[in-house]
Fold these 3 entries.
Entry 1:
Amino acid sequence: MAIIKLSFRSSVWAVLAKDAVCEIRTRYAAGALVMFALTALSSVSMAMAGAALPPELAAALLWVVLFFCAMAGLARVFVQEQEAGTLLGLRLYASGQAVFFGKMLFNMALLSGLTCLVVPLFSMFFAVEITEWLPFVAVLVLGCAGIAIVSTLTAAMVMYAQGKHAIFTVLTFPVLLPQFLSVISATARILSGGVPEFSEWVFMVGYDAAVVAAGILLFDYLWQD
């Protein structure tokens, strides 16, 4: 029987739609992300007992919560394929780059939904006032995109490993650290009433572009091996 390869665009949307349907049915990743976010925010809020946070600490706390929420759920994008035995089907019908972009878009959608939940709760729990919403949203988009892209790559690396989730976090954090520090600095400037410097914007955009390029170049090797 002949194997029909889908076009690149069709493959990307097919992978994204399949993951979305699976997540709607199981709600595993979304449930893990939401529960971790609520637990972390409420625990820190009670520990702070209403004390005001300086902008630098508030920015670091926001991104730490987003990062560890991502670590709690984003590794599932390839683990579920291994558990369900669908890896061979994906390899037959879609190229490595199509799978990479489909999984990356799914992770970005999950993180975007999580961010829409976390930011209002964060602002309410810690009495953080955000005046510059446009640059704040731009920083959130760039930071979450970096987390989603790197998480997709490292999830593919660890899908056959023992102790996947621990290794996933250990591998992801060092790669994300430059972007992590940059978005924390940019967020702190915004919470202080200013805007990030041009060099910070260039670095954040450049980092995301660089990891996308790395994914395009390397993912075929990770996927086929």
Entry 2:
Amino acid sequence: MEVACVRVEREQGEETRRRLAERDLVADELQITVEDGWLYVPVTDAGAVPDDLTVVEHDIAKRNTQDMPADLLGFEPTYERLGDIVILDEDDPDRAQRIADAIMESDLPVETVLNRASKVKGELRVRDWDVLAGNETEASGASRGSEDASSGTETVHREYGCEFLLDVAEVYFSPRLATERHRVAEQVESEERVFDMFAGVGPFVVPCAKRGADVVGVDLNERAVEYLRENARRNGVEDRVTAIQGDVGEVAPEYEDWADRVIMNLPHSADEFVDAAVTIAGDDCVLHYYDIQHEDDPFGPGEAVIRAAAEPEYEVEVETRHVVRSYAPHELNVCLDVRLTR
């Protein structure tokens, strides 16, 4: 039967399905269909689909089997998918195990189910995990650098045509920020010089380099930098990526006046590194500053700290005040896109 569907290129299918699912827009009773290189995701309300997605009418079949976790559980569980890993955040271990068992029994292409066992901690922003189902590899012992990861806490995650090898027990990575990373990368022009101050495994670095920029990525986490180099190779941009393990405050003087664009995705403490960002900035530089603030004034503190560091050497213009997501009750994760002009 002909129904409203979001049509996307196949490699963007999982990220698009996740975006739609977050808005409860996926018509679960209908089959997601692949045809001629396009993925068709049936939706419940075409008018609520984000404007950047294409809605078409397409012939879609009903699902004949109860093959999703919700069908087996009788309720809709909350989880994230990262490559072939499913991530839960459940306080009740019995409920977590029940969900994990249903996920493994479903038709989701999953190898491992993990439950968060700690908050993000330490300078390296990693957390502990409980392996609930699938491969029983210890959370600290996954291998790295393999051509394809399929077990334990290491996986290959794909978004917007890029792929990232990573180990969730060794590095910080949030699939929820895929749309935000794409928003920033879309602003990058060929031959730009981009500096990512907290690069991780390269989710900003790689797409910026794929658009023709020369990119420097710095991170304290040695394992993250190893994955960054591997991901640059996997995506064919190793010639345009410089990966540095170290404290960005110490690295910044080596790149004084260098960057056309600086990315500061460390929202809890980016304010401590604004002086370093100003050091890195060239004569005309866009700064992407991420912050977490109270909803009453989510942008003011960040703008104030940038102006204090950059003025009067630079003219400071806030081009975009952007809410990335809700972080906690009354707290917002936000981004300021700020142009610094010397």
Entry 3:
Amino acid sequence: MRFRLDTALTGMAVCATVGLLLWPQARDAGAMLLAQDDPVALADARVSAALRHDPDMLAKQTEAALTDQDADLARSFVDLAEARGVKLPDDLAQRVNDAVAADASASNVAKRFATGFVTGNADDLATLSGTVAGDLFVFGDIRDAVREGKHLVSGEETDHLILGLAAAGLAVTAATYVSAGGAAPVRAGLTLVKDARKAGRIGEGLTAWTARSARGMVDGPVLKEAMANASVFRPGQTVAAIKTAFRTEKAGDIVRLAKDVGRVGEKAGTRGALDTLRIAQGPKDVARVSKLAAAKGGQTRAIIKLFGRGAVVLATGAFQLGMWLFWGLWMLIGLVISIKATTERLTWSLLQRSKARRITRELAERQDILLQNMAARSSGSPPALAPAFAQG
């Protein structure tokens, strides 16, 4: 009996100790699994788990962003720290403010705007503004469409995605003018996708998807005929020719993607949108980041920097999270079983001891009665009755 009781107590101690060690991981795993369909809740669960593991994480990341001269990312980490109630060193916060102010100086903004307008490459708000301005004046889209269209006509390697985005951009630009800017997020999104494609910043999965979607957007034979007299120096004629080759009905998926990218850009900034295109494996990932950006705003870039695609999608690691949760639950079940077994064996032991004490007491009483009877016989007195007979 002692061995069985010791075994139950040992099992209870082991399950309790291992359970306490597993509890943080199991708790975080459960929170992430429950939030896997909600990108905002999933991101919150991941940030909470990371901060519990390393409370100084945000300060380290902010310092690293400043070292890389990325003031926008540093500002995003400061926003995330403020939202999570994490106190950053005062000198670090001041350095971030100084870096952001220097980055937003008038001379810097003007220079980057001109660079974006001329080259069509965007990596921040200023260069994106220049790029979008160039596309709104159809200069950028005509430039890209004529270049890729000439490649197509001459049989050279053609980037169908750039060609399709440029053609879609020409159609959307007209809608932007008609709606007085109502289609601006789509226009900005198309520009960002096009720029990310040129710079090789789109993830492999999203690249494959956009390439497939873009191939059906332009009628090749019609475009070849249109390209015969196309030129950036004849924008009106060139736009009309390219638009005849553009299949509006095939552009729905790309336009939806561009709208989500534009929304990310509005809430999280240009670099946040470019980071999104880099980690996304498909349009659903971009849509999830769009929801995250709508809720988190400037914090979005920091969250993507920390967790990549895992910030909004619970894909890789789901099995590992499930195992943490499984072992946590198993230890809890083991603890309950051990407590039950220990309680049963302690109760049985107490009952046995109580029974033994009662029997010992009865035997002692009987022995006393026997001695009294023996004494009574020797003295001629009536014998004493046993307790049971006396009660009867």
